[in-house]
Amino acid sequence: MDRPTPQPSLTTPQGSDEVTYDxxxxxxxxxxxTDGMSVTHLSYVDVVDGAPVMIESLGSPPPFAxxxxxxxxxxxxxxxxxxxxxGAATSTTTTCTLKVDGEVVARQSATGTYGLVNCAVSDxxxxx
Length: 128
Prior knowledge:
The protein is mainly β. About 0% of the residues lie in helices and about 50% in strands. The strands form two sheets. The chain has a four-stranded antiparallel sheet with strand order 4-1-6-7, with no helix packed on it.
């Protein structure tokens, strides 16, 4: 049985910092930046029909930005959300950032080729 490919909740244009905040929503922002030619491996947890879904991509052009908006009235464990990225052979620095309602809750950098970074909401008690 073929399963439909989950659609991302909301993706910002490549390199765009424009995020529209809605006071009735919780806004989660993922970003992976590298100075190399690509994000060799990218994975992040999206929310599709209220459930967490792992999305993976190989060879994504940097920078990567993705936004998830969830109604504040929903009960969703933000501790399930994360983004992971790996720089390329040409990378010297790779960085991920995770924001909740505009506030940075996780940031990690790696130096060198194929630098691996992972940003996650560490406080699982942050339910929407």
